[in-house]
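User: Hi! Is it possible to get a structure for several chains at once, not just one? Here's what I have:
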Amino acid sequence: MFGGGAPPPISLNESAARIPRRSTGFNQFTRAILRPDGQRVLDLGSTSSSNINFITGLGHKAYNEDVLMAGNASRLIIPGLEEGTKTVDVARFLAEDLQYEAESFDAVLLWDVCDYLPEPLVKPVVERIYEITKPRGALLAFFHTKDAGAEAPYFRYHIKDEETLELQQGPHFQLQRVFQNRHIENLFHNYNSIKFFLGKENIREVLLVR
Amino acid sequence: MWKSRREDEKPSPSPNPQQPAPVVPAPTSYQPTRTVETPKMDNYRADVAHIGKSVIIKGELSGSEDLYLDGEVEGNIDLRNHNLVIGPNGRVHANVQAKDIVVHGKVDGKVTGTDKVELKKSAVLNGDIETQRIVIEDGAFFKGSIDIRKSEAKVEAARPAAHAAAAPMFNPPAVATPHAGASSLAEKK
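Assistant: Yes, the chains can be modeled jointly so their relative placement is included. Here is the combined structure:
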């Protein structure tokens, strides 16, 4: 939507300051996964010690897979249909990443990954997430509003507590698109329920239940 | 006498307490690359087994002493109650078991640290982790599951505290409703 392919991820300042932000969507997500113990929670954002400690502290098993890093790997770049263009090898991505048995997870943290994913991967990734999530499983996703602008930086999301996230500027990824609410509903049309929460700093928080 | 000797022998948190810390020039500008921190291991290397970066091992690697691994291992590593450091050049395609495991390099396989697993910022780990404690630096790459296995004593001690900490999340705020903050709500049946 903003044009230009995703550049290779470049590490920014790894020790960048963390900005706290209250999150109603995450608070609702936490309530959904509070009980019983032993749930399987998949975090698809950047690896975060805070997130793992929070999830395991609730008595759950944490899984981590940095989908954005995987989706922008140079090994996935292949020539496009038109001469001189490049695209992403979706089949290879799905063969190597997000490889879990169907209905494996009770909850998934997608953060704002969809906004930064290369276009060919968005729908396949959402479909794969649906497959590996259990019925009644929860999914938390964030989406930028159009006011965020094309240069909205990519942040890592660290869980501080059940209602506070800490944002830390992470690797450089280009914002690829801005979803309208209607697009989000279409993208996640298989889910039983979808709730929108208006977050701060031009972010919409969406809590979905499969 | 014992007391003074113990103080002399007390290990320092610094791996090289007898020598002044090496002078590291302060970064003057941002480097847009994935930095690899080289662990300061001079004294550590003298005390532990060391596998250099040019060494390639295929097969079972077991031992009863601490190990610093900067080479490549394909197989299994089992150090039981001893510590393992995988250096920045370390490449491991193996299931790893040790007491404390520190990863600077790359690991493909299951990592079981009976006490602690630590992923440094240069670490790349594809595999599951099973441990009691975990530390992950910002920038580390991890793909897999984490199973925190607390010892029986710690489980009993932590259980009441964990429930107490979780309790407030059951109680919605006195004023806010469960949907407070929701700007719009679309429910599909």
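Residues 35-164 of chain B form one domain. Helices of chain B lie at 2-9, 42-47, 152-170.

User: Great, thank you!
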